[in-house]
Design a protein that fits this description.
The protein is an alpha+beta fold. Helix content is about 35%, strand content about 25%. The chain has a 3-stranded antiparallel sheet, covered by helices on one side. Helix 1 packs across helix 2. The chain starts with 12 loop residues before the first helix and ends in a 19-residue tail after the last helix.
């Protein structure tokens, strides 16, 4: 483990990591609204993404390493929709700039993995909503067959 004598971060690494991840997700998901915790109770949240970083550094062999456990939860109920552990690695050029660039690539890969899973969950949610809407309004279907009942009122 080696600490750079010359390299200084403008902000703490954890805050910078969160900020870059949020910006990446915003661009990848084409949404201007990616909020970081804490958010306020009245804010409608589609998904909560939790990331626990176990390793984010470079090795003596010249590789960057990002090892993170992450999950996506329902925004309103907190039910876990997806959870996994991911490891990313990239060759790191010598020096602080080369190492930072490799770590940035790893973070970009993590961002893509999370964005892809959120897009998949969005597609699934839209498909289920369409199916539910079709099930509610199926011309010629017998409502008794599904357990739903229609009430018709005449004045």
């Amino acid at each position: 483990f080696e600490v750079s004598e010359n390299g200084w971060w403008a902000v703490p690494l954890d805050a910078n990591f969160t900020q870059v991840l949020s910006q990446n997700l915003s661009r990848l998901l084409l949404t201007p609204t990616v909020m970081t915790y804490p958010w306020y109770g009245a804010t409608p949240i589609d998904y909560q993404v939790e990331v626990q970083v176990m390793r984010f550094d470079t090795t003596t062999e010249g590789l960057s390493q990002l090892n993170a456990q992450w999950s996506i939860r329902q925004g309103f109920g907190g039910k876990v929709l997806f959870a996994t552990r991911s490891t990313f690695s990239a060759p790191a050029a010598q020096g602080d700039i080369g190492m930072s660039a490799a770590l940035s690539r790893d973070l970009a890969e993590l961002s893509r993995a999370i964005a892809t899973r959120i897009a998949d969950l969005n597609d699934l949610r839209r498909r289920r909503a369409r199916e539910a809407a079709r099930a509610r309004v199926t011309p010629g279907a017998d409502p008794r067959a599904s357990g739903r009942h229609l009430l018709t009122a005449t004045p």
